[in-house]
Amino acid sequence: MFTTNQSERGFTLLETIIALGIIVIGLVGSLILISFSVGTVSLARNKFIAANLASEGIEVARNIRDTNWLQNRMDNGTLTPGDSSDDWNYGLSNGDWEVQYDSVSFLAYTGNLLRIHPTTRFYKYGPPGSQTIFKRKININNVVQDQVLVSSTVEWQERGRNYQVEAVEILYNWR
């Protein structure tokens, strides 16, 4: 005849509940870690995009300055007195502006969100394209006669928090 000892019967209800509790705590901890990691990756991605958009704003301002300089050079450097289009900083007026990557001039700042074009994947204002979370503001400040301070700020909101990336550069009349 086969007899069993009291200590060899199997798991009690209390042992089962404790084991399930340990498993649940491990799973919840893992899920929290995964959620935190996904949020961190999303924030890092958006900071990278914002830094490039801010840099692009500076590049467009630099392109306007260089175009003015090259246009004056193609005109053999002959400046028409009183003609502001001959100025190296023409189009770089004081104030807050919006700019697109393919533009040769600034647009009045309205605080619109940038859109991403469905085929080119470039960021622009207005349709077509889906709206993004990013706003870009270019601030121009003519500091002294041969210097323009350009500040490009990209702002966005993510998970209830506001974020901002700023790039600043001084453009010179290096001609």
Task: Describe what you observe in this structure.
With 175 residues, this protein is α+β, with helices and mostly antiparallel strands. It has one domain. Helix content is 35%, strand content 26%. It has one helix at residues 13-74, and strands at residues 95-98, 107-108, 115-116, 123-124, 130-131, 135-144, 147-158, 161-172. The strands form two sheets. It has a five-stranded antiparallel sheet, with helices on one face. It has a three-stranded antiparallel sheet with strand order 4-3-5, with no helix packed on it. It starts with 12 loop residues before the first helix and ends with a strand. The mean pLDDT is 85.
Topology, element by element:
Elements lengths: L12 H62 L20 E4 L8 E2 L6 E2 L6 E2 L5 E2 L3 E10 L2 E12 L2 E12 L3
Antiparallel strand pairs: 1-2, 1-6, 3-4, 3-5, 6-7, 7-8
Short description:
It contains 1 helix and 8 strands.
| Uncertain runs | none
Order of helices and strands: HEEEEEEEE
How many individual domains? Answer: 1
Strand order of the largest sheet: 2-1-6-7-8
Key traits:
175 residues; alpha+beta; 3-stranded antiparallel β-sheet; 35% helix
